[in-house]
Amino acid sequence: xxxxxxxxxSTMAMGDRLVVNQGSNDSVSLPTTADEAVNxxxxxxxxxxxxxxxxxxxxxxxxxxxxxxxxxxxxxxVMFDEGLTNPSMKGLINAVFFTSADVQQTVFPPSDHWWDAxxxxxxxxxxNLCDSSCGWKHTDAFSTMHVFFRDYKQVTCAGxxxxxxxx
Length: 167
Description:
Blueprint: E1 18-20, E2 28-30, H1 34-39, E3 43-48, E4 52-56, E5 76-80, E6 93-100, E7 120-121, H2 122-127, E8 141-148, E9 163-164
Antiparallel strand pairs: 1-2, 3-4, 3-9, 4-5, 5-6, 6-8, 7-8
């Protein structure tokens, strides 16, 4: 991920697993398909063309529901291609984003500290979750950092949707 000379292409295999804290007692396997996300209790959220369908995990519930407590949000969200451009990629992981309920960007001195340019206030973070009951506790804003595994220009949402709470 840190080699700027590496140029990925859409035919490269990613591997067969994503693991957080590999080799520790706290290791967590991330779903690599949308079906796995659903089957393991991840909350289905919005879809953005170029990113894919977002899924979130509440560590206090683990049943596809959200407690809306920022302290219970697993700090990595997964995103899956819905396969319109390339049907062989349907349901496969495209990206993840790291989430922090503590804002990582600073105004003085101005810096994003390698995070996405601006933090998402709670209202905007809720737009990622497509749930009318969204209302975060224990934070006012989230910082996110996206990491893409494939060519984002090839990733699509079902029904031609380009951004938001698509069917």
